[in-house]
């Protein structure tokens, strides 16, 4: 690579970093670019991302179900591109009025609890790499919900797992311009509105996607949140509550 090419690459990386503050490896995984459809979806884990990515993949495959990758989340086989594939073109699309950049957000209380139930409690017989990184050993014992709240409270944002990092941080909000921002609380309605506007449709069985990771967190908030943990979560996710207009009181 020549010196001028190296400088151009560095400039592009600085432009990306100015928009999206998370680690590059997280940005490259979370940003899904449908080149043919001219759509950019910045996913927020625990916010219906499995279903949304499958709908985008179906469109990008020309609505050919046989061409869909087996694993929705495997970036190596996905027809959706990452910014790292062509950073200059990606940044140009991000600025283009013809390309729609969108995402979905969720009430921070239920998103955090869902991450705990799915990624920390999980299956007592299975120890994941994520649990190992948190010091969880073999056996059925898991950190309590309160313990995870305290653990995350002390984490710098760059060190947070993407399943509980603040949504505004992952989305580069408000630096990145979003043409559509849906809500998990009305996922079906908002996604179908988006699909109708861009000529998208569901592949067979798509609505069953993500069931394995569903936790029913919305109905369990009262069982897990005390007043101290509520206050802690409001501090951790203050930007999410304010930017996305979620109340800092627990849903009744």
What is the strand and helix layout of this fold?
Blueprint: H1 3-19, H2 24-30, E1 31-34, E2 39-42, H3 49-60, H4 87-95, E3 100-105, H5 108-121, H6 129-133, H7 145-153, H8 167-171, E4 180-183, H9 187-198, H10 221-224, H11 227-236, H12 238-243
Parallel strand pairs: 2-3, 3-4
Antiparallel strand pairs: 1-2
Please name the defining characteristics of this protein.
252 residues; 12 helices; globular; 4 strands; alpha/beta
How would you describe this structure to a colleague?
It is a single chain. With 252 residues, the protein is α/β, with parallel strands linked by helices. The chain has 12 helices and 4 strands, in the order H-H-E-E-H-H-E-H-H-H-H-E-H-H-H-H. The chain has a 4-stranded mixed sheet with strand order 1-2-3-4, with helices on both faces. Helix 7 packs parallel to helix 11 (227-236). The longest helix has 17 residues, at 3-19. The relative contact order is 0.17.
